[in-house]
Design goal:
- Two copies of one chain form a homodimer.
- Chain A is mainly α.
- The first copy, chain A, is about 70% helix and about 10% strand.
- Chain A contains five helices and three strands; from the N terminus they run ααβααββα.
- A three-stranded antiparallel beta sheet of chain A has the order 1-3-2.
- In chain A, a hairpin with a 2-residue loop joins β2 and β3.
- In chain A, α2 crosses α4.
- The first copy, chain A, starts with a helix and ends in an 8-residue tail after the last helix.
- Chains A and B meet through α1, α2 and α5 of A and α1, α2 and α5 of B.
- The structure holds a DNA duplex (30 and 30 nucleotides).
Amino acid sequence: MDNEANQQAEDAADAMFHALADRTRRDILRRVLTGEHSVSTLAASYDMSFAAVQKHVAVLERSGLLVKRRSGREQLASGDLEAVRSVRSMLLELEDIWRGRISRIDELIGMPVDPNT
Amino acid sequence: MDNEANQQAEDAADAMFHALADRTRRDILRRVLTGEHSVSTLAASYDMSFAAVQKHVAVLERSGLLVKRRSGREQLASGDLEAVRSVRSMLLELEDIWRGRISRIDELIGMPVDPNT
DNA sequence: ACAATGTACAACCGAATGGTTGTATATTGG
DNA sequence: CCAATATACAACCATTCGGTTGTACATTGT
C-alpha cells in the first residue's frame, strides 16, 4: 500500500473530521442533506454574518461533504451522501480494528469472546 | 426535546470529531483499539516530544474515545468502542436525514426528498 | 536510599480557526 | 440603465491548536 495514496486519504480524513467538528457546519450539512439551499438562505438561519456562514460552507465544500452548483446568481449547496458514507466507513474500520483485539485475546487467554454487537 | 441534552450532545460531537481530525490522534486511537498501551509506549512511536503525544492522548481522553487506567507508574490507554460507535451513529443519522427518514430539522422546511438508494 | 522511569502540567510560540467589516464582481428585476 | 441581490474574498482580531522545553512528582528497581 503506497504511502502516496495513504497520505491523501489521511488528508481527506483530516478535512472531513475537521469540517464535522463544528456544530454550525454539522447543522448546515443536515440542511443541505435534505435538499439544495442557497448560501443566502443558509446564512439567514444563523445568528452570524453572511461571510461567516459562507466560510463554513467553503470548509464543508473543501472537505467534499458539500457540493455547490451555480444557478444564476445563486450558489445552490447540497450534501454529498457518498462523502458522508466514506466518513462512516472510516469509523467502521476503527471498530474492525477493535474486533481484531478480541480474537487475539481469545487466542491468548483461551476465553471465548462473543464477537457480535 | 430539551435543549439541555441536545447541547450536551453537540458538545460531545464537537469533542469527538475534533479528536478525530488529527492523523496522529487517529493513529493513536487505532493502536489503543488493538489493546492497552502506556503513554510512554505510544510516545515512542512518534517523531515528536513526549509532552506532545501526552496532549494528544488527553484530547482523545476528553472526547471519550480513549480511556486511561493506572497501573503502577504507568497510565494504560485503551480505545472505547462504544464512543467510536456513537460517532458512527451520528454519521448514520446524517445519512438518514438524506433519505428523508428523519423529520428532525425542527425549524424550516419540508422539502420533498427523493427517497432512493 | 536513590537514580531512573512514567506522567502531568505550565509557559511559551507560530500557525490555524472562527468570527468581524469592508470591498469587488456578477446577475437579476423593474 | 440602475438598484438590489448573491456571492466571493481580503484584512483584521481574539482564541485555539499543535508543537516545544522545563519543572514537579510519584513509582520502581537496584
